Amino acid sequence: MSDSAQKKQYGMMAMITCLLMCSMTSTATVISPIIGDLIGKFTPLGYTATQVKQILSIPKLSTLVMTIFGVSFLIDRVDNKILGIIGSAGIGICGVLCAFVDSLNVILFLRFMQGVFMGMIAPFFAGYLGRLWDGDTFKRLVGLKQTAAGLFSAVGTFTIGILAASYFQNAFFWYAIDIVIAVLIAIFLPSMPAPTKEEREAAKRKTEEQKALTAARKGSVSDDERKRVMRTLYIMTFLYFLMNVVRFATYSQLTLCVTENGGSTMAAATAQTVRQVSAAVFAIFFKEVNKLFKKFSIPLSLLLTGVGMCIIGRASTTIMICVGAVVFGGFYGLVNPAFYNSVNNAKKVGGTANVKNAGFMVIATDLGGYLSAYIMDPLFAVLGITSTPGQMFFGGMIFSVASLIVLVGMLFLRTNKKAPA
Questions:
Q1: pTM of the predicted model, to two decimals?
Q2: Average pLDDT over residues 297-314
């Protein structure tokens, strides 16, 4: 095969795998524009709004379970290509079936299964791309996925608004794209068998070398420094969990803010699309923002995210809601990489901390997303915040207060570190 043909083939492989990951990233929340319609359909049947909102969040639960218990088992025993085909086709079939179902429990089951199939795609992405490319190429593909996922979600959300124009459950037909992706994987991607015994032994030796390197690093880092870094990791992960609890509630709140102001499902889809595009665009400039504000990029991003949510909560027109969505989505698009970047200091204490870093952040995202309705809805009930705009405004205040807490904490840690022994 000529070099140009090989580059074209690898380009196709990269495109399909990144498309697959974009789909997985948007699976749980892309149908958020119709959550108001779903609540309107099922609450008269005796279900609570919190139960209906689980349509958005329950895939997070099953994905989390698969991520924790199924990743290493699958990636070492199943052809990575097969994982991609089954995972993508499963997401598509379960999603499309939701369009024909009138039972909330059945829809929740199908959405739960979507999360299971999403958990199958995670090892596919890591295993497949990691074995085809390494180093800077792999990092570029992962970085491309972050931006592409936001744009893909925006296209999906806008398309769902169009599909829902005739009947809101038609929005679930969006998931047919995952069936198409499964076909593309089957046709264009080569097989990637599970590692052989020799490859597993080589990986084991590499792990042992990493452990030795970790021990060497630990020897060069003081116990106080290691404790400080790990304490920061745990604190930032807990804060990230809380931020995801609040953020995930906004997927339904943003839609309901539009519809309660007289907007259509298409208008809600437009607002969600604006938020997602803004997040994708702002994320492109994260390096520049982080270079300018350094560690303080986290409190700044949290503060402006809260400002955007407050604008939405006080808006009386769809246009103003979209303005707030630009600020909210854009600066939250900086929060994610800022948090990941802050805990990256765990490198100082070796490879084990890096694994904890990645694992904790994934758990914080999925667990926070799943528990969001169960935490936020009772909280709103206790505080007597019954209106959706009021709930969005309160969420914005939480982000703003969090920014001050993070800022004070950073200043305290910085002062404590500089204090003489």
A1: 0.80
A2: 92
